Amino acid sequence: MASDALVINNRITIAGWELTEQFVLAGGPGGQNVNKVSTAVQLFFNIAGSPALSDRVKENALKLAGRRASKEGVLMIEANRFRSQERNREDARERLKELILAAAAPPPPPRKKTKPTKGSVERRLKEKSGRSEVKKMRGRPGGD
Predict the structure, then answer these.
(1) Strand ranges inside the chain, DSSP E
(2) Confidence class for position 30, pLDDT limits 50, 70, 90
(3) Do β-strands 40-46 and 74-79 pair in parallel, antiparallel, or remain unpaired?
(4) What pTM was computed for the model?
(5) Contacts of 109 by beta carbon, 8 Å cutoff, 6+ apart
(6) 30: left (phi over 0), alpha (psi -120 to 50) or beta
(7) Tens of pLDDT along 42-82?
(8) Could you tell me which residues are beta bridge partners of residue 13?
(9) How far is 65 from 73, CA to CA, in rounded Å?
(10) CA dist 26 → 49, 75, 95 (Å)
(11) What's 48's DSSP letter?
(12) What CA–CA distance (Å, rounded) separates 35 from 88?
């Protein structure tokens, strides 16, 4: 169980009881340490059941999580970049924080429809008529 709370921003704070950590053996370089010490961290967070997040943030977070989230809405972040358990733990918490911040970001403003300028419309029509003239010249000569 993760004991300390994770502060995302001034509005969102995830309580320590909502985060569950599991330590597993990591692969890769590290020699004897890798074979003996469980340095990799699996951080579990129930996005769907979290009281700290609004419905919009929950929905966005589940979309961003993709395959890392289960059908029940539980997110699993696995961190094994570093050789020490503590640094992997911090890395997993930081990655969770980044995901929640991205989910909490405001939606982009709606696109404003624009009209082409009068000059651009005239240039386009002039270009079209010029192409038309070129193609007419490719036909058979008329027998006057």
Answers:
(1) 6-7, 13-14, 19-24, 40-46, 74-79
(2) low
(3) antiparallel
(4) 0.70
(5) none
(6) left
(7) 999 998 888 888 889 889 998 988 898 888 889 999 988 88
(8) 7
(9) 10
(10) 29, 20, 18
(11) T
(12) 16
**Cβ(20)–Cβ(2) below 8 Å:** yes
Nearest CA among 48, 25, 45 for reference residue 93 = 45
Beta strand 19-24 with 40-46 is: antiparallel
Residue with tokens 């809405």: 73
Element (H, E) at 91: helix 85-104
> Which amino acid belongs to residue 53?
L
Q: Are strands 6-7 and 74-79 parallel, antiparallel or unpaired?
A: unpaired
Q: Read off the amino acid at residue 106.
A: P
CA distances from 141 to 4, 135, 136, 137 (A): 88, 13, 10, 8
Contact 92, 43 (CB under 8 A): yes
pLDDT at 143 over 70: no
